[in-house]
Structure formats: structure tokens, C-alpha cells
Design goal:
With 274 residues, the chain is α+β, with helices and mostly antiparallel strands. The chain is built from seven helices and ten strands. The chain is 45% helix and 16% strand. Strands 1-2-3-8-4 form a five-stranded mixed beta sheet. A three-stranded mixed beta sheet has the order 5-9-10, with no helix packed on it. Helix 1 links the parallel strand 2 and strand 3. This is Endonuclease/exonuclease/phosphatase domain-containing protein.
Length: 274
């Protein structure tokens, strides 16, 4: 378990966040329960908001098992999990999405469980009662992806413009910049130069935003769609080995590789944002 203090940059709100990856061994999970107890008593102390999120690798009740009648062997692990939750004064945050968050991905013996969850102490509920978690398909993982929103967005609070470096590789980038820049008078040394520069940048901002949305909007969905097409073409090439099917698979790989590279570049840039 990784625990850290978090402060909102626009307010003085501070809270404790713990990110959990529980062992699938009941003996090793006891160390996690001890660590949770320590954080609850010595760090949160009943006065600091505390949120935990992650894969606990154990259900909280037998009903969180798709075949709960076969889960009798997990009763001890469930009781221990319930005990530490009660001891740390934790409750599940409101959530939406599927009831189960993990599947064994076995066609002949399918099993699903709720192993992933977000919980907070009573101080968290008092301070961030509007927080909620969305569980959605995990794509390449057999666990659901968790997205926790701590507070609602303020109506009318628009997101600031962000320049994404991958846009400069678009074939129309220089053309768009040139058209916008030359659509108004040239810059020269004067008292109004900064104002004219601001106007040019403002016009350029909207055009770059449009170019990014049209070509790279919802890039993760585009990457997933390209990956599905790639898998389809590869399967077709395996079943029908021919020059044309191999070329289709190669073209699909190039398209997916191009989009996934853009997605990786986007995540790399976001990870450096301060």
C-alpha cells in the first residue's frame, strides 16, 4: 500500500490517499491489514479525510462472488477484511458500473468478483461527500478501471487551453498556423504589438483546438478501434494466407502503431504537467 498526503492546488483542502494492491495470499494480506490499521490510528486519526482505492484481492461478502455458493473457503478472508474495515471506520464511496470488477477470463469456468473498491473514513464522507467512483471496462486487464471524482466541476468553469505536442506532426499544422498568422496585420515594434500578438494567439488557439479534436479527439477510443481492426486483419491473414490479407494486416498495424504512438506521447506530456 502506498499512502501520501494530497493538497488541492486551488484550495487549502488536504487529505490522505492510499493506493492498494493486495496479495492473493491470505497470510501476506495480514501485513496490509496491519498497515491500514497503522494509517488509521496514527495518520488519519479520525480527524483527517482518508481515501483508499485499489485491488484488495478479497471480497467484502459472499454476495460479491458470482458463484457465492462455492465461496465457502473464503469465509475467513472475508471476515478479516470486514474486521479491518470496521476497525478503520471505512465505508464504500458511491459508485456506478458493473457489480463485479474482476473476472478469471475462463470460458469453461467463468467467475467474477468484486475485488476492486474505493473506501473512505467518516471524515472523508463529511469533507468529500460528493465523491464517487466509476468502474468501466479495463480493456487489456481482467480488472475494471476505476475513475474517482472527488468533487463536482463548477458550472461554467471551462478547462484551460492545452497545447499538445503531437499536433505539430499533423500534415496541416504549418498550413493552419500560416493561414491564421497571416489573416491579420504583421507584427512590428509598437505600443500595440503585444495586443496584436495576443489576438493572433487567441485565433490560433481555436484553430489548433479544432485540428486536435478532428484528428486526435478521444484518442484512446481511436486506438482501441484500430487495435480491434488490427486483430481482425491478423486473424484473417492467418486463416486466409494471401498477399492481399497480409498487406491489409500490415496497413492495420501501421495505423494502430501511429495512433498508439500519439496516445503514448499525450500521456507522456500529461505526466510532466506540474
Amino acid at each position: 500500500m502506498i499512502t501520501c498526503w494530497v493538497r488541492f492546488k486551488d484550495t487549502e483542502d488536504i487529505f490522505i490517499a492510499s493506493f492498494v494492491y493486495g496479495s492473493n495470499c491470505i497470510v501476506e494480506r495480514k501485513e496490509l491489514w496491519k498497515e491500514m490499521d497503522t494509517v488509521s490510528r496514527l495518520v488519519a486519526g479520525g480527524t483527517n479525510p482518508w481515501i483508499l482505492q485499489g485491488d484488495f484481492n478479497v471480497t467484502k461478502s459472499a454476495m460479491e462472488h458470482s458463484r457465492f455458493l462455492d465461496s465457502a473457503g473464503e469465509n475467513l478472508a472475508i471476515r478479516e477484511f470486514q474486521d479491518i474495515i470496521r476497525s478503520c471506520d471505512l465505508v464504500d464511496t458511491p459508485y456506478t458500473g458493473p457489480e463485479f470488477t474482476w473476472t478469471n477470463s475462463q470460458d469453461e469456468n467463468p467467475i467474477s468478483k468484486k475485488l476492486d473498491r474505493t473506501m473512505g473514513n467518516s471524515c472523508w464522507v463529511s469533507s468529500f461527500g460528493q465523491s464517487h467512483t466509476l468502474f468501466e471496462a479495463g480493456e487489456i486487464s481482467n480488472h475494471s478501471r476505476m475513475v474517482t471524482t472527488l468533487r463536482d466541476n463548477i458550472p461554467g468553469n471551462r478547462k484551460p487551453f492545452k497545447f499538445f505536442t503531437h499536433v505539430v506532426n499533423h500534415p496541416q499544422f504549418l498550413e493552419v498556423v500560416g493561414q491564421v498568422w497571416n489573416s491579420s496585420g504583421p507584427l512590428f515594434h509598437s505600443r500595440t504589438a503585444l495586443k496584436k500578438l495576443q489576438e493572433k494567439l487567441k485565433m490560433l488557439k481555436s484553430e489548433l483546438h479544432r485540428l486536435n479534436m478532428e484528428s486526435f479527439g478521444d484518442i484512446s477510443a481511436r486506438v482501441k478501434a484500430a487495435f480491434d481492426v488490427l486483430c481482425e486483419k491478423q486473424n484473417n491473414a492467418l486463416q486466409n494466407p494471401h498477399t492481399s490479407t497480409f498487406e491489409e494486416a500490415s496497413n492495420a498495424w501501421e495505423h494502430w502503431h501511429h495512433l498508439s504512438g500519439i496516445e503514448e506521447q499525450l500521456f507522456y506530456q500529461k505526466s510532466r504537467v506540474q
